[in-house]
Design goal:
198 residues; 4-stranded antiparallel beta sheet; Alpha-Beta Plaits
Length: 198
Amino acid sequence: MANVTVARQRMMGIAALLGAISVFSAAYSLFPIGPTPEEKWREASQITLEHKTKLAQTAPLTDISGKIGKAQKDIQRFYAERLPARYSYVSEEIGKLASQNGVQLSGVRYSPAESEITDLQRLTIEANLTGEYSHVVKFINAVERSKMFLLINTVNLAPEQQGGNVTLQIQMQTFLRNSGPAESQTAEQSATVPERGF
């Protein structure tokens, strides 16, 4: 009888253990410990996306010294090719454009000023522009396409008109580069240049 009792107790213990295992398995399936495979996949995808974003953000900094050197060379080339070194170069350029497009410039005045850009002097050019309307338009287009950097600030209709021609008051701007004493011209020297007509 005692053996049956012991055997029954053992069976009940085994049954309780199996029940506990079943309950634990069910709980784990419903409430798993740690991230699920889907969560792990989403986490890996997020990390990959963040990595790509960081690479894109730091890409402009790659070889930054080389890019700075190239930018400096581009600026120097722009100065050499498009900015005049002397007032006379500006006078020759706008005179040539006026002649090529059949218009007359009169009362040309040059006003130098300090520039916020190192080694550059701001130069404002004011003049009266007279000619047929179509020729005046061509001249303005030619100024805007000129290899010399010339920026048209204002164009106003002059108070007095002459016959079938149109007269405009035009203001342009450029920058003089500092190329050393051999090529530079001081503001005092430029002030002695009389008004010119083309």
